[in-house]
Amino acid sequence: MTPSKIKAMQERIGVEPDGFWGPKSIAACQKHLRALMPKKNPWPKSDQTSLREFYGHPDDNSVIVNIAAPSWMRLYDTDAKVKTISCHKKVADSLLRALAGAYAASPDHAKRFFGCHVDRNMRGGSKPSLHAYGAAIDLAASTNGNKTHWPTKADMPLEVMEAFAREGWMPAGAFWARDGMHVQATQ
After folding, report:
1. In sequence order, which residues have a C-beta less than 8 Å from that of residue 53 and are 6 or more positions away?
2. Strands 170-171 and 64-68
3. Using an 8 Å Cβ cutoff, are 38 and 49 in contact?
4. What separation, in Å, do the N-terminal and C-terminal C-alpha atoms of the chain show?
5. Is the pLDDT of residue 122 over 90?
6. Alpha carbon distance 33, 169 (integer Å)
7. What is the pLDDT of residue 70?
């Protein structure tokens, strides 16, 4: 993001706009997004015990459903239409609401689907990814990669993260300063 876009975002989250994304901006952004989340967040904490208690075992694909993708959704690097999204049945309705809000905020980012349910471990780790539970989605991967610092290099709009936060989803870019494409149904 450009310094002017960072300034606009700083204004939105209540930080004096200076175009520098540092500790004050990070804390204010996280506070802003948490304030949008439901008071009683419907999702589990992100530790493996909480995830398994809520979602079941990540190898249990009987809880994975295929939902009709919004008509505007495309594969991240092509114009191929996405027909279905595979996700955990507990997140399906919330995911569709969050995607609708994200699309209203930034169609170019929301429509670029990179994946949801994928049986795999966390990158570089031995524990199951939230994707293995079907409780995470990646959007606009080409400009919001895993090791791309958000918001100085990655360009996922705050408004997209807000749409997911309203559903209780955790946007990785704002909370881990990288992986701006990733949001997950955890606290």
Report:
1. 44
2. unpaired
3. no
4. 26
5. no
6. 10
7. 98
Q: What is the pLDDT of residue 166?
A: 98
CA distance 139 to 69: 13
> Do residues 114 and 145 make contact, with C-beta atoms less than 8 angstroms apart?
no
The secondary structure of the chain in percent helix, strand, coil, rounded to multiples of 5, reads 35, 15, 50
pTM of this structure? 0.96
How many helices (H) and strands (E) would you count in the chain? 7, 7
110/160 Cα distance (integer angstroms): 7
CATH number of 41-184: 3.30.1380
Q: How far is residue 161's CA from residue 158's CA, in Å, rounded to a whole number?
A: 5
| Strands 74-75 vs 84-88: parallel, antiparallel or unpaired | unpaired
Kindly give, in sequence order, each residue whose CB lies less than 8 Å from that of residue 65, ignoring residues fewer than 6 positions away: 86, 87, 88, 89, 92
| Cα–Cα distance for residue pair 22/71, rounded to 1 Å | 38
Distance between CA atoms of 145 and 135, rounded to whole angstroms?
19
Three-state DSSP class for 119? coil
Residue 1 has pLDDT above 90, yes or no: no
Q: Which of 106, 100, 123, 96 is nearest to 179 (CA)?
A: 123
Q: CB–CB of 154/144 below 8 Å?
A: yes
